[in-house]
Amino acid sequence: MLNENKVKMMTKMSIYEKNEGKTMLKTAKYFKGDYVSLGVLKTIISVTVAFVVIVILSALCQADSLAENVNSIDYASMGKSIAGYYVTFIIIFGIISGVVYSSKYESSRKEMKKFFLRLNKLERFYNGQKKKN
Fold first, then answer.
1. What is the per-residue DSSP string for 34-102?
2. pLDDT tier at 1, thresholds 50, 70, 90
3. Is the distance from CB of 101 to CB of 41 less than 8 angstroms?
4. Is residue 86 part of a domain?
5. pTM (2 decimals)?
């Protein structure tokens, strides 16, 4: 005989595991520091690539003025300003991604606790059924 509560509980757990459970299981493999560090590293790499693309596109857009003033441009100050912008972008996006990945990890851990509480409840239900039989 089927127990309606057991079927509902198993269905909810299965749907959750299929949808949100994938990300939950990915984060469960890491410690918090490792997960946040990996996320920040991915962000820094992405920001670096995006910054290089922006600098190249900016140089291509101003190619005429750069070609006309090739001898009068102060390359040292231009390099310092580009490096300053790069460091600023890295710091800003690094901090933002650290906060975002930390909160994602914490919310994933909370959801994982709920999931395991449901599993324990289901296990207690099965153990109660075995004792009756």
1. HHHHHHHHHHHHHHHHHHHHHHHHHHHHTHHHHHHTTTT--HHHHHHHHHHHHHHHHHHHHHHHHHHHH
2. very low
3. no
4. yes
5. 0.74
Residues of the domain holding 75:
34-124
DSSP class of residue 20?
T
Please check whether residue 29 is in contact with residue 113, taking contact to mean a CB–CB distance below 8 angstroms.
Answer: no
Cα torsion angle, 84, 87, 92, 95, sign: negative
Q: pLDDT at position 12, please? A: 74
Inside any domain, residue 105: yes
Q: Residue 65: name the closest of 76, 73, 77, 57 by CA.
A: 73
